[in-house]
Here is the input.
Amino acid sequence: MTNTSKRTGLVQDRRTLLTGAATFTLFTPGLTFAASGDLAAVRKAAEAGFDASVKRIQDWIALPSIAAENRDMDKGADYMMALARDAGFQQVEKVPTDGHPGVFATLDVGAKRWMGIYFMYDVKQFDPAEWSSPPLEARIVDKPGFGKVIVGRGAVNQKGPEAAFLAALHALRAAGRKSPVNLVLVCEGEEEIGSPHFHQIVSRPHILAALKRCEGVVIPAGWQSPSNGGVSVNLGAKGIVELELVASGAKWGRGPRTDIHSSEKARVDSPAWRLVQALTTLVTPDGNTPAIDGYFEKVRPLTARERELIGLAAQRMSEADAKRALGVDRWIDDLPWEKALERLASQPTINIEGLVSGYTGPGGKTVLPGRAVAKIDLRLVPNMTMADCVAKLRAHLDKRGFQDIEVNVSGGYDPTETDENSRLIRAELNSYKRLGVETSVYPRLAGSWPGAVFTSAPVGLPAGQFGLGHGSGAHAPNEYYVIESSNPKVEGLVGATMGYVDFLYEIASIR
Amino acid sequence: MTNTSKRTGLVQDRRTLLTGAATFTLFTPGLTFAASGDLAAVRKAAEAGFDASVKRIQDWIALPSIAAENRDMDKGADYMMALARDAGFQQVEKVPTDGHPGVFATLDVGAKRWMGIYFMYDVKQFDPAEWSSPPLEARIVDKPGFGKVIVGRGAVNQKGPEAAFLAALHALRAAGRKSPVNLVLVCEGEEEIGSPHFHQIVSRPHILAALKRCEGVVIPAGWQSPSNGGVSVNLGAKGIVELELVASGAKWGRGPRTDIHSSEKARVDSPAWRLVQALTTLVTPDGNTPAIDGYFEKVRPLTARERELIGLAAQRMSEADAKRALGVDRWIDDLPWEKALERLASQPTINIEGLVSGYTGPGGKTVLPGRAVAKIDLRLVPNMTMADCVAKLRAHLDKRGFQDIEVNVSGGYDPTETDENSRLIRAELNSYKRLGVETSVYPRLAGSWPGAVFTSAPVGLPAGQFGLGHGSGAHAPNEYYVIESSNPKVEGLVGATMGYVDFLYEIASIR
Here is the structure.
């Protein structure tokens, strides 16, 4: 029996999965921690807890905390606290910020090592009309080629993977085992608006002191590739700034303060045209390269090792799959696959997330809008910083006479980088290898997460993602997370849970 | 007793207004038609019909026909037909078009002359949340400084003034009088989307033949100035083209077909940036002058007479009032009042009505939109034509490589001009003068109406607006129309009704 066929047995059918013994053997070869009998017991507990774990995800999805809409934020923090207590964290506290509250919790089992875990309890906005089932109902649906999935807002981003991590703690306790490492949980409710206050949480003296004891910090993830079950170990991520550029008659002193009849355009200036003119100066004519004065000063080119890693990843990943998933026929400048991946990892961007001005409904309406807004995100690469980029944007606009255009930053954080040779990254690679998962080390995620809060001063820790399992549709309709996989290469919820168990043991024992 | 004090009596209080005799004298001096006793009887009938006339407006507002939303269009045409029959039109027919139906009606009293009347039965879109009272309830509200007004969508644009015209026909009949002229009514339901099919209505042979008998065509209006009761007689109006410019991954062959995660910007082109780049080429850097290749070729500069008329209007009108009403501190290029008015009348415009792309809700959302739309209106001056302008826009974009940007025209019409010495304009001036209303002859309305359908081939008639009374808020929340004026310089519904009676007699008798 090969590993693959065993794993087929594991995921194809829940009844098979729950028989336990056959699937347990998947995790036995090469285990580095002492009592492999422990693992069998923990797995049994994870399987027995499957229904409770699914319900834990569903109940959590039913409470959508959305910072952008100030929706259920305090409730969300309370719920997060209850989840932490329920999973065995002994000290759990709500951490106020200038924005929405975070949560800090510790689980001290007297182990030698400490591990940091980052959670977000917030989710992205959603429009129920775009969904195939109500996004808060977290329905279990048969998704052809994937298996049984939970469909709901936050399913994969990030409640499903986070709940899989909590399930690992429940399984350890149910099996009568202690966590192999002590845990520090830091959690925020503003990840989806760019984590504007998360640094306030981690820099509280007692939280900072707890984090500084840790080997590193991971955010639970469920990003196994549906094609080969592979996982990326990312050595960092781009930074992000989210902001609105606002042109208005009120600030400008020209144009109208509110929407007026469009026939007035012949004698009245237009804030919408002003916004367009300002936007045009920010990028090259193809819209692809930032043209803000001095914007590339701090950009560090890819190292030889980073290019090597991208080259290896390019061979493992399917360009056709990527294009299909994105609905894209060609990359910028018709770049070949490896060059497109290099661009993705190495280039800062200025993206228009949204344009809003005047009349936005069906058909037309003859107004001259008093206000025009571009929703923008900037993605930053090392060694750019959020503060420097925002200052350069402001200076660039000012220099061109656009002093009136507001730059309203709603959130963001610096790029993050973690050493390939850190204990955290090596433990991830060891765990994935033992679990039979094809791994690609990737120099930098093009997406962003507030890892810089951990990797930068004052915390200064390795940080990354870890997790088996699969979901997709983050920020989109019909977001899902696989709980029972019909794909032999991808784990379901129990497999993801056991992945965290393995990883914690690996962190406990790695040299 | 001066005219003004009499008119104060007329409008200050409905009870006074309904006493009749004192107010009737306002209209007697200088009447050109024979039986001035007729007028007293008609006025009594108009006053007696006040409640019915108000209800006619309210009931009409309760049925909002909105072409952009395909809302109640056929019902609206049927309702219009019933209103025409009720007012005495003998022949009333629905006129199908490639879009929404129009209405054609005639009232043949065997008079020597025929007059054309243009109605629109559609109204602009509305958002009830923005209104102080439900926009379809047509509530009667005391508006300080104005009097009793009907608040509702379509109140002034154009149901109130149109209903005042119908009230004139009802009053004539109730007083046992025939209309002094025969009438041709042409009506459409697509004015608010740029009258894309109105030419199909007027070019039907029997409708065209009926129109060609007319002295001219007027649309009822209620635009007396609240400051001095003055009215403009407009010798024309700008043309308009409404269109959407659409950039999309689907058409472009670059960028995504749908919204994707914004981190992809580093390797994927952006339709939103493409739209911004294309827009930038359409106007001068200040956003104020069209920069489409060859766009000014057909633009006819103001004549000496037109400049003279604007100069006279500038003296009569208050710049401060205009700026206050618009919420504007300065005109384009800080032009002085008269030059701003010249610019308003003489310059073609390219206006952004709306921008829509990607995420448009509160806060941000990290998407790279697959589609971006600019809602645009072009205002045309003589001798520009809609067809030529759209062709030049297309050629301009194509020449710059923007072949993929869609130009989706939803409606529009050419500019319209009517001879100052036509019988229609002279009759308007005579009526206004007799009614004691300060009149300013204005060369060209910056707004647009489908008058070109009448002034151009094949119809070729003088066309304009006529009406006393006041309302405002067209296309905006809390649109209103005054039914009982507390402003001594402005007429209410009965005064507006009697204005139409006077005008019809004037058309009947003018040399």
Remarks:
- The domain at 3-237+416-509 of chain A is CATH 3.40.630.10 (Aminopeptidase).
- Residues 1-35 of chain A have pLDDT under 50 and may be disordered.
- Chain A touches chain B through 95 residues (CB under 8 Å).
